[in-house]
Amino acid sequence: MTSAIESIKAKVDIADEIGLAVALQRAGKSLKGLCPFHNERTSSFYVFRETQTWHCFGCNEGGDIFSFVQKHQSLDFREALLYLAEKAGVSVEEHGERTEEDREISVARERLLKLNEEALLWFHQMLLRSKDATQARAYVQERGISTDTVVAFGLGCASEQWDGLSLYLLGRGYTEHELVSGGLARWRESESQERMRNGIYDYFRQRLIFPIRDIRGRVIGFGGRALGDGKPKYLNSPQTLLFEKNTVLYAIDMAKDAIKQIGQVVIVEGYVDALIAHQYGTKQTVACIGSAITEKHIQQLKKLTKQVTLALDPDAAGSAATEQGIQEALKGFDRTVLPVPLAASKMEGTGRSQSGPGGQFRKSGQQQPRGIIRLEEQVDAEINVLQLPPGEDPDEVIRRDLSTWLYAVAHPLPLMDYYFVVKTADLNLREPSGQTEAAKRLLPVIRTVSDRIKRDAYIRKLASMISIDERTLYDTLQRLPRDQKTAGVTADFTGKTSGRQDARMQARERDEANRTIGGVAEENDQGQMSQVDALSHQDFGLDKHKTNAIKWEDYLIGLLLQNPGLSQHVCGIINDSDFAGTDTRELYRILNSVYQRDVSPTLQSFEQFVPSALLPAVARAIRNVESKSPQDGAKLVKEAEQCATRLKRNRILQLNTELQYLIREAANAGDKALEKQLRQQVFENEKLLRTIYTSTHLQG
Ligand SMILES: [Zn+2]
Fold first, then answer.
1. Which pLDDT does position 145 carry in this prediction?
2. 658 CA → ligand 1 middle, Å
3. How far, in Å, CA of 402 to CA of 493, rounded?
4. Do 274 and 251 touch, CB atoms closer than 8 A?
5. Region of 227 on the Ramachandran plot (φ > 0 left; ψ -120 to 50 alpha; else beta)
6. Most exposed residue of 76, 126, 342, 432, measured as fewest CB within 10 angstroms of its CB?
């Protein structure tokens, strides 16, 4: 297999292949163009002929020719291999991949695909023309499904007849066996002898039919919604050569382009939800057939996007089924390896290792003796939860109030934030019993986060939410049995020591700040690390700035809520994208728009625009400023401005952190032009930071 891949790579140049999809221009040793994976007007997408790799520093995607083909054409590896093998004139089968049996199965699959196409036509014609389909057409109308949607998705109808479809297909030359194994008919058992087969009858009867296609648009099965009181209410194709219930995503073929373009997939629970979402323009929507989201669903989706938005039934939120779905979703995403810097080796005394191209990104397992960079797993996905008014299905919300739906789709709640809201909704967090219960419920969930930095952030969030010493939470987390699910956690939350906690946190922060990133540290053009450069190196952990920022974000939002007039003083410094927290970012956006409409808004007038999911963030922000003593106007303005400046600074530091990765990569790839360009960006950021420092005299 490896040799087939190598010979394909040797024969098909990555620039030629990508050049088919992207207009590439020469840029130094590399080629650049507009990234096909995110919307952009200036080129951030680079192809490196020397290393036969590509990288986009706009959206941080990259890889080799296979990953490009897979991602661009939404193919799995095997499909991409076949595609490229044909192009290279390399025979993949030569390498002993396929047996006679494989070949037979492949023929049977092709035949079944044709059979399904024929069945689809029959169902579809029934729905459009048959007088037996009156009830089905009425149902379609009642659910608000347009004729265009009916045609685009090929909806159909199975009548009450026992053998309408079977007779039609037998007449087209298919056998009874093919119909049964294809999931379109069942054997009719003889009444006298149970095991005797006595012809066949239709699998779907008196149902509205939803053809289910794979990502390439081929019909692999059907879903049938009972018209009237038929049981079960929804009947899907049985397992066949093509149809595997736990992998199917309804409407994936219609949604894939939008998912890639928008960078988000919305997962709903029902066929009609998906249809209506598409009909009203949310074309990045798919439906999950069956009850749970499985790892296999996610495997398909992650080729298209890493932003997964679950439209969960709000009533079921927090239920075991939902939680299981979420756990599966989390598990499904590959834990991709990201280079994570180690603290400089003690042997290197000064705290700075030698700079230059010595530090390589190594594959895990190839442990470097001095560990300049080690690779650590990180869940490579952002899972959000879409919040809808309680008791309503997505299709109802869309038809009744499209703007609510669109807002929810554009502002989903990060999964863990969602957990924090849902799991503590019924608790009084000011009471010790409520605090203990909150920890009991949330710690097992936090524990499932494999990324340590993120996990720490959630621990801190929980600690501040329930005013409990972080250390106590860590201890409890350690004590959780390995397979602890949700219940039965015993935790002792007495003895709060917030003073000690503060001291410890400060010590830790100092510690982290003193850490230097060996190997990744780069000298700038002047041959010296600037103050800013040094700062950006202190915090290579990706979420560090974020955690830090969120404290300030809460405080700033709190200040603005209590003194709306402050908005005008900070809007020149920051915009909503400077917020790292989803909730604070959204609150800031709402605050600004309310302030623009109403010169002196009250907290009440503001709260009516806040989605209920954000109310805890409002409470948190207000708590944050309440404890401070009241200040005079001028002091408040200064405080708000300083706060906004900190946010801006954090954001830029975060950007520089990411740029350092890319500089390293460009250096490794020998791409001076890109490296320079990236350095230029770092330089611009530094300039901006200096301006910020001098204009505000902010103490770092
Ligand atoms: Zn991109």
1. 97
2. 14
3. 45
4. yes
5. beta
6. 76
What is the CA(242)–ligand 1 centre distance, in A?
34
Largest CA-CA distance found in the chain, in angstroms, rounded: 95
**Residue partners of 4: CB distance under 8 A and separation at least 6:** 81, 85, 90, 92, 94, 95
Answer positive or negative: Cα dihedral of 503, 504, 507, 509.
negative
* CA of 40 relative to ligand 1 center, distance in Å: 8
Structure-block tokens of residue 292: 């749970």
Give the model's confidence band at 291: pLDDT under 50 very low, under 70 low, under 90 confident, else very high.
low
SS3 568: helix
H-helix segments, 96-146: 100-129, 134-142
Dist. CA 333 → ligand 1 center (Å): 20
Cα 35 from Cα 197, distance rounded (Å): 58
Give distance in angstroms: CA of 550 to centre of ligand 1.
Answer: 27
Structure token digits, residue 467: 């005013």
Q: What is d(CA 651, CA 656) in angstroms, rounded to the nearest whole number?
A: 9
Taking the centre of ligand 1 as the mean of its atom positions, its distance from the CA of residue 662, in whole angstroms, is 13
The CA 34 to ligand 1 mean position distance, Å, reads 8
**Residue 228 identity:** G
Segment 432-450, tens digit of pLDDT? 888 888 888 888 778 767 6
331 CA distance to ligand 1 centroid (A)?
A: 25
Task: Give the strand pairing for 45-48 and 156-158.
Answer: unpaired
